[in-house]
Structure formats: structure tokens, C-alpha cells
Amino acid sequence: MATYGYRRVLLKLGGEALSSPSGFGVDPAMATQVASKIAQVRDLDVEVAIVLGGGNIWRGQIGLDKGMDRATADHMGMLATVINALALADALERIGLTPRVQTAIEMRAVAEPYIRLRAIRHLEKGRVLILAAGTGNPYFTTDTAAALRAMEIDADLFIKATKVDGVYAEDPMVNPQARRFDHLTYIDALNMGIRVLDSTAITLCMDNHLPIIVLDLWQQEALQKAIRGEAVGTVISD
Fold first, then answer.
1. pTM for the whole thing?
2. Separation CA 171–CA 185 (nearest Å)
3. CA distances from 83 to 77, 86, 169, 218 (A)
4. Cα–Cα distance between 141 and 74 in angstroms, integer?
5. Domain covering 8-237 assigned CATH 3.40.1160.10 in the classification
6. Domain range list for the chain
7. What is the rounded distance in angstroms from the CA atom of residue 147 to the CA atom of residue 157?
8. Angle CA(78)–CA(194)–CA(27) in degrees, nearest 5?
9. What is the pLDDT of residues 68-100, one digit of tens each?
10. What distance in Å separates the CA atoms of residue 31 and residue 69, rounded to the nearest whole number?
11. How far apart are alpha carbons 41 and 92 in whole angstroms?
12. CA distance 204 to 37
């Protein structure tokens, strides 16, 4: 049993967390750094499930701008998340953790199909669960997939780990003086139209009273602080 208030967390990562400085592709060294941060969370005796984006490999908007069918572009994005999931699983294995990859689109040669009860069993056995291929359906983002999986596996916390240390009133890259919020209600976040998390994911969390923390993955001990209930990032809750 976890020492802290959270027994099981869903960690949402952008694909860029695994990429080279250019923001594209998979850099095994970056994957190892991410794996080490996940290991620090596991050291707190917290069960961890992960959903990865695929933007470092494919962004569907590129295809849409060129007239590509939306469903085709989205399915390509789902496959990109599987590549990222396999890269992270390899990095986790190399540092001594036991990962399991499950995919919403069946590809049994490389990963298990997503089965809710099997996913929960992996977590109970202390394995790091990586959930890939989104929901398996087009028109849904990986943020929404992460929120959905968080509900299905009965997670206590949804962590959206980005390159920014919370939610700001304005883009902090444009306005360094922009206000950062320590806490927002779900309704506040929806009304503001925050770009760090899509509205469907926020609504799903709101309907199921699942707290969200938006934080900077690369800030020292940010994940551990979130698990320990210390002030970090922006909390979105009731």
C-alpha cells in the first residue's frame, strides 16, 4: 500500500519527452531519462500507468493541411504512440523495472491488446503499464485516451507532464510575466480554453471527480512532489 494519498496514478506524456532536441524522432538517451523519473515514482510504492502522445513522430494536422482523411491521419498517430511505448518499455527494462505495453489496436506480435482487468492486474503486480494507440478510434486525442484509461483502471490522480510548470493565463514563452495558476476548477479550465489539455479530457475528469495536476516533467522531483501532495504545478479539481 502506498505511503501517500495516491495508490495509482495515470501519467500522460507528450511524445516529445522521448525526442531529440529537434523535437522529432526517438532518442534512447531521453527515453532513459524519462524511465528514471518513472522509477522514482515507483520507489514511492505508487502504481504507474502511462499514456504517450505521438507528436514526435507524426502530427495528424500535417496530413489534414494537405487534404488527408482525418481518420487515416489519426490512425497513423495511434501507430506513432506504439513506437514511443516500445521505446519507453525498453528503457524501463534497461533500468530494472518491469513494463507491460497494451494497445487499443491489436498487434499481438509486439504488445498485448488492451484488456481492462489484465491492465489492473499488471499494476497490482508492480509492473509499469504503458497504454498505447489512444482509444483505438479517430477523432479522440491522447489526452482524452489518458483520461478514459485513468477512469477504467481506477486511478487516483491524472498527471499531465509537459515542458511548462503549470497552467498560465497567457503563453509564458510570449509573456514571461504571465500569471501561473496554482489551482483551477474544472469549469475555470474549460472556460479559459486551456491548451495544455483538451476539453474532452477535462470534462471526463470533471464528471468522475478525478484531480488533474499539470506540471513540468523536467523540474527536479516534480513527480515525487505531486505524489507526496506538495505544491507543484497547477491542480485542476472540483
1. 0.94
2. 20
3. 10, 5, 34, 22
4. 9
5. yes
6. 8-237
7. 10
8. 40
9. 999 999 999 999 999 999 999 999 999 999 999
10. 31
11. 13
12. 27
